[in-house]
Every structure is written in C-alpha cells, then in structure tokens.
Design goal:
2 copies of one chain form a homodimer. With 262 residues, chain A is an alpha/beta fold. Chain A has helices spanning 22-28, 38-42, 54-58, 61-65, 82-92, 133-146, 155-181, 193-199, 206-215, 217-239, 243-259; strands at 13-15, 33-35, 48-50, 74-76, 96-101, 122-126, 149-152. The first copy, chain A, has a 5-stranded mixed β-sheet with strand order 3-4-5-6-7, sandwiched between helices. Chain A has a two-stranded parallel ribbon with strand order 1-2.
Chain lengths: 262, 262
C-alpha cells in the first residue's frame, strides 16, 4: 500500500501462506501480484522483503536462495536482529540486510494494513562488516520509499535498544493487565483512556510475542531487572510516605519521557 | 464547555486561583462568569463542583459552607475518595457527594479543556449512608449532563479499584520510562507508538500524582506488590526458556484486556 502511493516505480508481488487469505489480500491490494507459491512470488524480484514470524524469517534463506538471483538484496521486518542476521548471513550472504521498522499496532492481518503505517516511523537497519554495500543502498532506499526514517546500528545494539523500548513495554503491559484485572476483571469497566493506552499493546498476538521474547531473552531479562529496581524504589518511597522521593521519581520519568517528540 | 453545549439549562460560574489565568479561561469559556473570589463565584449556586488538587478539595469545606446555602449539593472530581469524603462529610454534611470522572489526559490547564472530554467516560459516585438522597439525585444529573456514564460504589471500593486501573498504570508507566531510558535516553528516538502509548500518562504533573499516590498509599502498595509477582513470574519463565508459560502469561493478559470494550 505504501509503495503504491503517488506514482512510485514499484511492482509489488506478495507471497501469502494460506490460499484462504488471497481474496482479502487481493481486495486490499488490488495492484499486486499474489501467490501462495514462493517461487512464483519472488521470481525476477529486484528486492525481497521477509515479513513472516521471526522463526520463519530465520529459516527462509535456504529455500529463497534457490529462487532468486545471487545479487538480489533481501531484507526483513523481524523484531529481533542478532539471530536473524546470523542465520540469513549464512544462507544468503552479504546481500541480506536486516531491518526493523518501528511501526505497527496491536492488530495483525491484512485488515490492519494502512498505506501510512510507516510514515515517519524509525526503521533500524542492522548491516554488518559482511554486508554488500550495494544491497545496503537498495534496502535503505526501499524502506525510505515506504515512508520510514532510516537509521543503522549493529544487530546487538539494536536488540539491546528494542528490549527497552519495545519488548519491555510489552512485558510490562501484560503484567499490568494481570495485576489490574486478575482478581476482579469487572474494574476494567471503570477504566479511562490512561489504562487503555498503557495496556493497548497487550492485545498483540501471544505466539508472535513469545517468539520475540525468547529470541531476545538475555536483553529482556536485563531490562526487566532494571524495571524491578525502579518499581521497588517507588514502592519503598510509598511505604515510607516519602513525598519528596515520590515526586522526584515521577519528575524524572516525566522529564525523560517529555524529551521525546510525540 | 460540556454543559454549555446544545441548549442545556446551565449557567456556569468558575472560580480560579490566579488572576493571570482569567484571560485564557475567559477566551476558552466565553459564556461563563469568572472570579478569583470564591464567595462571588459560588454565591447563589444550585450545585458546586470542586476540581482543585485533592488536598485543596479536602480543605475547602469549611470556607465553602459560609458562602452557600445549607442545602446546595457539592461534588468534586478528586482521584481518591475515602479522605475527601470523610473530610467533606464532616464540613459539609450529607449534601457532599464524592465523584471521580474517569476522564482527562496527561495534559492539564485550560488549554487542555475539551467539550467532549466526559462523553461516555465512567463517573464513579461514592455516596455513603449519610448522603442526602436529593443531593445524590442532583449530583447524578450533573455528571450525566456533562456526558458521563454514572455508577456508584463506596469510597473504599472506589479507592481499591482505581489503585489498579489508574494509579498502578501511572506508577508502572513512570517506572517503565526510567527503566527504558535512564541508561541511554537516546533510544527514545527509536520508539514506535507502542512505547509512546504505554508511557503517555507519565507526562502528567508529578505534584498532583504525588498527592494521589500518598492519599491512596495502602491500596497502591498492594497493587504494586501484585504487579511485582506477575513481573517476577514472567522473568522466571524467560530465565527458564519456558515457551509455554510465556505464551500462557501473554494469552491471559490479552484475554483480560480484550474483554474491555475499546
């Protein structure tokens, strides 16, 4: 949808796993070529973008290599990069450039597709010393034309950063829903927009997030440990009725959060 | 703003603490009577609504009683009810009916005012056995005409519920911002809408939230303890690479959260 806006020179070909998805995908993306046959979908492609679940991305290199030319750049949209970059570096070589567009919502499936989903969203590319410079250029151009602001860092730096700004928020939202509603689910009816926003991501599909959490396990555990320290600090200040520490805690959070442009 | 929509029969008179606020308030609410003199603002009122900080609400009863007739109903918009209801029950008697409209945002001040702020929002009234039935009727009508869905419960039940759906989310959002950004604030530039939504409430004013947290200290500490149990459970499952438990944890959160109508 993003690439088919405003006269961009892309011909989009989509692979989808299930035949029964084809009618809805075809209706949402009338200008695209569609197939459940991977060979047909990628044949002759100038660039290939892997958007399946993380483990499926990891395992797709071998079969993909048989269907595309040796110089075709390949990128992906997986949420954890070290494993994927290592696996696809092996099966596809320097033409694979890992990417993580920081866009999306708690929804999934073609019904959640939006042409402006990527507009202004950061897209983190994770090239390595083995990356092919021309593939990197083409992958960079692809994500920019989709609407993203592109930046680059190593797979390890990426995984540490997203543990904190994506995986930890998801873990915390899920724990918060459970702490807020397990004992008495009816209190949800009293919630305002604060609760709804704070817990929105917890509606995301658990099978995908289980994969993400396990793929970034070490970094997520470290981030959760830090969260535990901060939660403990606030609880301690509350237990002591320490107004000054509570206000300083909240002030630091507000200041850190406000720095970010909305 | 809400009461002045569509021919409702309200004449609104506003008290504001600071003279310098008057021009902006007057511009935002052209049909209202404005004053920094409490006596002038409330004289002859059929109902009085206290919307200051929690401690100011608590302490307003004595002075207010001198300026209004003995039968004028009084309500408020404070976030914690047991303390306010006890204090104002003493100073104003059965005509005080505590209320908590579950509306608002991380913003404050007249610039954040919106006519539709209360539309469809729950408003929790906390009458007691001492409440005057006619005052309760009038206060109920007031919040309904402002746009709220009104429900009723005891002050203690209210405080336990909002500890979980409002005060805990705020505490968690603040702790999450600190855990995510303290070590490296620059990662905020990579965040998507998930991080922004999960942490939005942490932009709220810390002086107000310090008061709220301390006024509902016992309930909030209990809720934080529950959160710590859930966070520990998830961390433990991650440490053991226990895919099944992680998925079950996330599934329960999604199911609980999805029950609530958006």
């Amino acid at each position: 949808m993003a690439l088919q806006r405003g006269g961009l020179p892309w011909n989009v070909s989509l692979w989808t796993r299930r035949e029964e998805s084809l009618p809805a995908v075809s209706a949402a993306l009338p200008g695209c070529r569609l197939s459940c046959d991977l060979k047909k979908a990628v044949e002759g492609a100038d660039i290939v973008v892997l958007c399946t679940s993380p483990h499926a991305i990891e395992n797709s290199g071998g079969v993909l290599a048989d269907f595309i030319s040796a110089s075709t750049p390949v990128t992906d949209a997986g949420s954890v990069k070290a494993r994927i970059v290592a696996a696809l570096g092996k099966s596809l070589g320097g033409r694979f450039i890992g990417a993580h567009p920081m866009a999306g919502s708690e929804q999934s499936g073609i019904a959640a597709a939006r042409a402006d989903l990527f507009d202004g969203a950061p897209c983190i590319l994770t090239p390595t010393p083995e990356s092919d410079p021309q593939a990197l250029d083409e992958v960079r151009r692809f994500w920019k034309e989709a609407g993203c602001r592109v930046c680059e860092m190593s797979p390890a730096t990426h995984d540490a950063a997203v543990a904190r700004i994506s995986h930890l928020p998801h873990a915390v939202a899920a724990a918060l829903v459970r702490a807020a509603l397990s004992k008495n689910p009816d209190v949800a009816a009293l919630a305002g927009s604060g609760f709804r926003d704070t817990t929105r991501v917890a509606i995301g599909p658990e099978a995908l997030w289980r994969e993400i959490f396990l793929d970034n396990r070490e970094e997520l555990i470290t981030a959760i440990s830090d969260l535990q320290v901060h939660v403990g600090e606030l609880k301690n200040a509350l237990a002591h009725g320490d107004a000054e520490s509570i206000e300083a805690f909240l002030r630091e959070a507000r200041t850190l959060r406000s720095r970010e442009a909305e």
